Every structure is written in structure tokens, then in C-alpha cells.
Amino acid sequence: MPARKQKGQEILKEEERIEKLEQKELKKLQELQKEVRKDVGSHPLTKITRSDIVRSFIGALIGTVGHFAFFYGVELADRISLVRASALYILSAVVAFFFMYYSGFRKVKEVRIMRFIPVRVVVVYFISLFVVLITLFIFGLIDSSSSFEHIFKVISTTLMLAVLGASTADILGKE
Asked: CB–CB of 148/71 below 8 Å?
């Protein structure tokens, strides 16, 4: 009988040891689950909200009007060719892309950034174009009688400032 009792106690101790191991494993699994949830959750820069659009408008307006640099942009527009003006449009888009990438998207661990960064850049770029167009119109530097070539060149010389301002505003406040 004492052998049975001793055997029963050994089995009980073994079961307790197994239960403790199971509890440790369960804790590890729960910690892993928390980590996976954190990594799987969407990055704040992947969504474009109304707040993002408003910040881009404000940033583009500040970038364009901040120092009334668009007056000099109009002066420059008379001196550049359509090819240079086109290059300024492309350069502005490239600047927006790299500015956002190195300011916020670089922190995204996975290669998925190429899925959503172009959308953000396009939104910021077109908001900047719109703000520059409206600003130039409000200040009387372009109007309905302006030629397409003049409007194209004037916007191109001011767009870089607007893109920088809108990109800066877009990344402000991101987690």
C-alpha cells in the first residue's frame, strides 16, 4: 500500500509539473499573439482620412503662400521652357515620394509600402496642384484669359513649394 501511495504522489507531482509547463507555454503563446496583432495592425500612414486631406491643403497653402514665393515663380515661369516646366512637375512628384518615404514610411517593416505610398503621394500631389491653381487665380496671376502654356509653366514653378508644404503637413501627427 505505501508503494501505491508513493506512486500516486509521484504521478500527482508529475501532473503538477506538466500543468506548470503548460501554463508557461500558454503565456508564451499569448505574448506571441500580442506581437502578431501589433505587427498585423495597419500602419497609420496606410489610410487617407479627411484629416490627412485637410493637413495637405493647409501645408500646400503654407508652402505656396508662406513667403509669397509664387510671385517669383511667375517671374521664373516666363524664363523657362515647357520641357523644364514638365521636369519640375516630375521633380515635385519625386520629392513628395522621397520626402514621405524617408519621413514616415521607412519605418514600416514590410515591403507592402509600395502598395499605399503611391496613393498618398498622388493625393498630396493633386491637392498641391489644386491649391497652387486656386492661389494663383485668387492673386490674379492667372485667369480665364491666360494661355495653357502660361498656366502650365506658372504652376510648375510654384508646385515644389506646395508639395513640400503638403508633404510636411501630411506626416505631422502620425504615430
From this structure: no
Beta carbons of 95 and 128 less than 8 angstroms apart:
no
**What digits encode the pLDDT tens for the residues 89-143?**
999 998 888 887 776 655 555 545 556 677 888 888 999 999 899 989 998 999 9
In angstroms, the CA 167 to CA 63 distance is 10
Q: Which residue has the higher pLDDT, 31 or 138?
A: 138
Q: Within a 10 A sphere around the Cβ of 51, how many other Cβ atoms?
A: 10
Closest CA to 126 of 91, 99, 92: 92
Sign of CA dihedral 117, 97, 103, 159: negative
Cα dihedral 145/147/153/158 (nearest 10):
10
pTM value > 0.70: no
DSSP letters for 29-68: HHHHHHHHHHHHSPPGGG---HHHHHHHHHHHHHHHHTT-
Q: Domain limits of the chain?
A: 1-41, 43-171
Residue among 137, 88, 131, 96 at smallest CA distance from 117: 96
